[in-house]
């Protein structure tokens, strides 16, 4: 039986007023916004974007407890509220259809709810290496299978609706926005199984859905970036169709110890905290908010599993020889996950995988989700441009 798909967040009157105030501030001249943000914050030579600094102040006023200090249900509501607050106006697409992925037929356990986005009609010219693969130019479109962030615990297809719409509208691609199973109700490897099944379902149903099977990418942010990297590895490792591109936004790539330097530099104060990550990890791997407690689970072995920490894959050379997909990796300068995202991109590049690394030195962790800001829109535009090139969509 399919799980109930996520539903749109319904903000309170106070939250609507807070969002209007933030949007009014963003509409001010840049000089006024810089004054509102206060003294520039600089770490490792990067200055925090003033609009992001203001957004962090807003969260400080309305956020209350940290996510890891809440119950799972309360934390899910809080993240949904934050996502709504900073999403901006949704991009216009031709349609959004609720679909059910037959997970059982593709290696998962039961059905998986998802949303399928179609771009507005326009002639699409296929260019580059994919030109020969398009049997009927202008009809079969590329597809992006998107996995939301939220530490494998929070987030949903609805919290990332604005991201899916932007990729669809600006990239002129079909987007499959997946509501994979989350912890603690479903611990690892449930999310991995669902992610792999979702990609395989898109490929198996490509003709029916108007998708070019040779141009299906996987993409995601944070935990979703982790799942995208894992899908690219797993489908390459086990044969069969694999993505044409892996787009990894602020991905989790390594949960082994010790943590990277960026965990120490940005442990608190920049949206994602080290305590958040500890809570996500424990909940995802064990179903408990803390590690230990007499659990029989071998945490170190789980952490080193490449389906948890793709940076620790021991068969990388074999994966590259089998055609591990090219990668676009975008990280934030003010993010505990910065260093492991960079390390993953550099590992792929050294191994011979065509890789683009983009370090947004002025951004915090969820930059791809804050489309109300100039920075969020700029980061999205860069990613869309790279995606269009990689998937052979004629430049707009």
Automatic annotation (TrEMBL):
UniProt keyword list: Hydrolase
GO MF terms held by the record: hydrolase activity
SUPFAM superfamilies linked: alpha/beta-Hydrolases
Sequence ranges assigned to domain Alpha/beta hydrolase fold-3 in this UniProt record: 144-368
Pfam families: Abhydrolase_3
Positions of transmembrane segments: none
Superkingdom assignment: Bacteria
Family from the record: Belongs to the 'GDXG' lipolytic enzyme family.
Designated name of the protein: Alpha/beta hydrolase
